[in-house]
Amino acid sequence: MNKTYPKEVFFNGEWLPSQAAAVSVFDRGFMLGDGIYEVIPVYGRQPFTMEAHLGRLREGLHAVGIHYTANGLLDRVKEAVERAECADGLVYIQVTRGVAPRTHYFPEGVEPTVLLYAYPFNFEGFEKKLVDVVLSPDLRWHRCDIKSISLMANVLANNAARQAGVVENVFEREGWITEGSHTSVFLVHNGTIYTHPKGQHILPGITRDIVISIARETGIPVREEAFAVADLPRVEEAFLTGTTMQVTAIGGIWINGRKSVVSTDRGPVTRRIQEAFIKQTNSL
Ligand code: PDD
Prior knowledge:
single chain, 284 residues, D-amino Acid Aminotransferase, Chain A, domain 1, D-amino Acid Aminotransferase, Chain A, domain 2, 2 domains, BCAT-like_N, Aminotransferase class IV, Aminotransferase-like, Class-IV_PLP-Dep_Aminotrnsfr
C-alpha cells in the first residue's frame, strides 16, 4: 500500500508541518509504549461517532493514570478534517505520558505528549469484499479493553497473517474467539449473531456497538457471548468490524494451514448489517 505522511500534525498545542514535529527520545511513548490512541473515521468531511471515540480515549487515559482531559480535542478533530482537505479519511490521536528519565513507575510533574492528525482513507467497496483470515493464538495482555499504543502482539500476529496472504487474524484465547488484531469479530450461527462480550479480553469497538444496535433494530438476534473455536465449522456467516474495515465479510478462516470455508458469498445477515451501516454513514 502506498502510504504517505500527512502534511500537518497537531503536536503539543500547535499545528506544524509534519517534518517539523519531533518527539524526544525520552518520551515514554517511544521508550515504553506508555500511551493511549484512537482512530476516528471521517465520511464526507464529517467525523463519525466522534464522541464515542473521544469517550473511549478518556476512559483509556483514566485507566492508565495519564492526566489529560481531552476536552479540546473535539475542535482539533474538526480542524484536522478541514486542514487535511479530504472527504473520507481517518483522524489519529495519540497521548503519551510525556517526557521523563526512564522509570517503570509514573514520573511526577510530566506533561502528556499529544499528537493528532487526519489523512485520506478510502472506505469504498468494503461491502463487496470477502476476505480470508487466520486463526491465531491471542498472545496479548489481559487489558485488551485499553487502547494502548503498545501493540507488539497485534503487530506480530498481523504481520504473520499478511505473510500468509490474508488481511486479518481472528484471535483465540483458551478455545474461544476474542477479536481480530485491529477489528472486532462477529460470527453467525443458526441466524443468531455472536460476538465476544465486553471485558478485559477485547477492545470495546465503536463499530461493534453500532453493529449490535443495527442488529437489534433490524430484529436479528444478537448475543454478546464468546464463540467456541470448536464450533467454527458450524458458522454460516462471519464478518469483521472496525474503523478501518467497517463491516467486511469473511470468506474463509485458515486453521492450522487448512482453509475452513465460511461462505463463498456475503450472507444475508452480513448484507443487512452492511446496508444499514452504509445508510448511517451516508446520512451524516
Ligand atoms: N483498531 N479490536 C482491536 C484490537 C482494534 O485495534 C480495533 C480498532 C477494533 C475495532 O474498534 P473500532 O470499531 O472502535 O475501530 C477492535 C484501530 C482502527 C487501529 O488500531 O488502527
